[in-house]
Amino acid sequence: MTARTKRNRLFAAGVVAASVSLVLTGCSSSKSSSSSPSGGVNASATIKAVAADPALAAQVPADVKSTGKIVVAADASYAPNEFQDAQNKIIGMDVDLANAIGQKLGLQVEVQNSPFTAIIPGIQANKFQLGMSSFTDNKEREATVDMVTYFSAGTSAAVKKGNPDKIDPNDLCGKKVAVQTGTTQADQIKDVINPACVKAGKPPIPNDGDKFDLQTDVTTALVSGRDQVMLADSPVVDYALKQTNGQLEQLGTVEGKAPYGVVLAKGSPLAAPVQGAVQSLIDDGTYKAILEKWGVQAGAIDKSVTNGATS
Questions:
Q1: pTM for the full model?
Q2: What does the DSSP assignment read for 184-242?
């Protein structure tokens, strides 16, 4: 089995009794269930540099240590997790965490922008050492790569302010829904939601959802009225609510829970020191400061593990 080159958000739908209730489920922390976005974003905040941990640095394999750096891939269209600022610099929660991991390991970090679907193949080809791009850790992915957990997020839906089309969060059949290409939100519309709609005698979501390569275009499609609903990870929807100046609102609540994972090549000797670095950042407070900077502290975890998927 090859690894899926999709963002797996664990977005699913269910048929409840005779009435088809399409329930949004995701990979969120239960703390994210409020319809209000979490704390404010302060992208200019400075995260204090952390000292290298000699014990963790000693675990870095010789070939990586000889270069003095790790190359991290991110699809920089998924704010506030990874995106580009006005100067095209890649910033975000994942970028700050990647830099802090590198500091713990005594390495420089080079973050490269990559299409999401090219990240795992790039890691397998040794083009990148790490992938930090809001990947959900799951059993299928763990069959071909290793994943170090560092965050928890869920799937959210958003509509235009006031929900003018009176969208029912439990029934998206026939609605125009915008999603990012390569996500499980997109996959589940095709494989789960629309078949359930057809079975219930309801019209499916047109085109199996309107799919866009960039999350920014997904948000624009909703704001412009091209689409009626947008589906994305909970921190991304929260950020969109803040950045669109009240033009959007969350639809329903965030459901479900699953971790994000740093992606590494299967069997990579970097997995142990990266996991140790993440845990050390959690323990020393740097992790909390980074999440608060980006307003995503609702997704904080207490313990990082390698290959901790339960499904």
A1: 0.77
A2: HHHHHIIIIIHHHHHHTT-PPPGGGSEEESSHHHHHHHHHHTS-SEEEEEHHHHHHHHH
